[in-house]
Design a protein that fits this description.
Blueprint lengths: L1 E7 L5 H11 L5 E3 L6 E9 L5 H15 L4 E12 L4 E8 L3 H17 L12 E7 L5 H10 L3 E7 L1 E10 L2 E11 L1
Antiparallel strand pairs: 1-3, 1-8, 2-6, 4-5, 4-7, 5-6, 8-9
Helix pairs in contact: 2-3
Length: 184
């Protein structure tokens, strides 16, 4: 199973995600994510044997307890890119309110999962919702203009849980399914 830990955006924000994606849609070589599956990835685990699921779930429970984060409000707003405006691979909307709580959760999950042998993150954690991926440089100028000029607010939502999710890659893109929910 291809697994990751995430905070899902509620269905009420999927229209806001789609509206922001529309600003980017004229860019060539841009692949939009499914606005109805919008989420903030806290930790990507990757391919995980089914027989390790119980161990992973226990580690997630320990991490959430250690992070000591109660349910909180988060706001998704602003735009950015990874790795840079000169070389764009991912276009994202940022998390403003709620970022410290998400960072604490990420750090605790990182400690617990790397102790199990999962790879450590190669980059500093920056809570975000992926809006699109740019396959090559053809759409870079359009994306850069939108990111530099726009600062949309997608909305605010309550975060009551972290989800362990399974990702299945298909011809229409990835499909995500919740495996386990962990209350804060």
């Amino acid at each position: 199973m291809r697994l990751f830990l995430a905070i899902d955006l509620p269905p009420s924000l999927s229209e806001g995600v789609a509206e922001v994606q529309e600003l980017l849609s004229d860019a060539e070589s841009l692949r939009l994510t499914d606005s109805e599956q919008a989420h903030v990835t806290l930790k990507f685990l990757g391919e995980t044997p089914t027989d390790r699921l119980d161990t992973v779930e226990n580690a997630v429970e320990d991490a959430i307890e250690a992070a000591d984060v109660e349910p909180f409000e988060a706001e998704v707003s602003g735009l950015g890119v990874f790795p840079s405006l000169d070389y764009i691979r991912v276009v994202w909307a940022g998390v403003t309110d709620g970022a410290p709580e998400m960072t604490r959760l990420h750090e605790a999950l990182e400690r617990e999962t790397t102790a199990l042998g999962f790879d450590a993150e190669a980059h500093e954690f920056s809570p975000h919702v992926t809006l699109a991926r740019l396959d090559d440089a053809r759409g870079k100028d359009h994306v850069r203009r939108v990111v530099e000029r726009e600062s949309p607010t997608i909305g605010t939502f309550r975060v009551p849980e972290v989800r362990l999710k399974k990702s299945e890659l298909g011809s229409a893109g990835p499909d995500y399914e919740t495996v386990t929910r962990f209350s804060l």
